[in-house]
């Protein structure tokens, strides 16, 4: 019996993270997904194991990998979890800033530190889900965009450091993607299907990286819809 490869995906219960998890299960991976509210996930499979964890909680984060019995077999890590608060800088609360810093910078850095020794042993790979906001000036996205730019640079640093050990590092930079990311924002993707990406399309890009392993690495990919178009939400 073939032992399945083991993957670790944050923000795995919905949106892009769920699409990635389902794709990896389809490839035969055992997927350990992390979610703050796993009970809200609508997907179930014997190869998909959701772990409840608030990645902004230092105590929960420190013990997260201990809940994975075969953590030494992890060969793929996908840092996907995220959220954004957009507002003028003087209106952004301290709690919201801390939450975004913890989720977008602290958590992926600490988890990477803990799991890299296994990835070196297994000749594995790390995938960071960035954002086009980290490459552009984003109105009222001052903190979110800055943090994404920071994790972009971290991914590039890791690519240079870990390639000598056979660990592949990829930075995926999606543009507007139709998920519930926009639920609490005052703008959202337009109805035009050419103006947004779908989570499954992001998962398809990662599938190609994982399956088509030809001995060379694509360190960074930006994915954009054909048309740029956003709309403001109607005020209720």
UniProtKB/TrEMBL annotation:
<comment type="similarity">
    <text>Belongs to the short-chain dehydrogenases/reductases (SDR) family.</text>
</comment>
<dbReference type="InterPro" id="IPR050259">
    <property type="entry name" value="SDR"/>
</dbReference>
<dbReference type="Pfam" id="PF00106">
    <property type="entry name" value="adh_short"/>
</dbReference>
<protein>
    <submittedName>
        <fullName>SDR family oxidoreductase</fullName>
    </submittedName>
</protein>
<dbReference type="InterPro" id="IPR002347">
    <property type="entry name" value="SDR_fam"/>
</dbReference>
<dbReference type="InterPro" id="IPR036291">
    <property type="entry name" value="NAD(P)-bd_dom_sf"/>
</dbReference>
């Amino acid at each position: 019996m073939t032992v399945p490869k083991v993957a670790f995906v944050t923000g795995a219960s919905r949106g892009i993270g769920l699409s990635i998890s389902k794709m990896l299960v389809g490839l035969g991976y055992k997927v350990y997904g992390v979610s703050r509210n796993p009970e809200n996930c609508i997907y179930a499979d014997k190869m998909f194991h959701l772990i409840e964890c608030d990645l902004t909680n230092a105590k929960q984060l420190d013990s997260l990998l201990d809940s994975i019995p075969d953590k030494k077999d992890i060969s793929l890590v996908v840092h996907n979890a995220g959220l954004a608060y957009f507002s003028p800088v003087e209106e952004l609360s301290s709690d919201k800033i801390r939450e975004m810093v913890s989720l977008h910078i602290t958590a992926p850095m600490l988890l990477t530190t803990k799991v890299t020794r296994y990835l070196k042993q297994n000749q594995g790979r790390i995938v960071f889900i960035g954002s086009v906001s980290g490459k552009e000036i984003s109105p009222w996205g001052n903190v979110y965009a800055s943090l994404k730019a920071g994790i972009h640079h971290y991914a590039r640093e890791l690519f240079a450091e870990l390639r000598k050990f056979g660990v592949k590092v990829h930075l995926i930079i999606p543009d507007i993607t139709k998920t519930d990311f926009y639920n609490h924002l005052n703008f959202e993707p337009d109805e035009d299907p050419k103006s947004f990406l779908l989570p499954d399309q992001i998962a398809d890009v990662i599938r190609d990286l994982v399956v088509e392993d030809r001995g060379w690495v694509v360190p960074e990919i930006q994915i954009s819809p054909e048309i740029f178009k956003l709309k403001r939400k109607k005020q209720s």
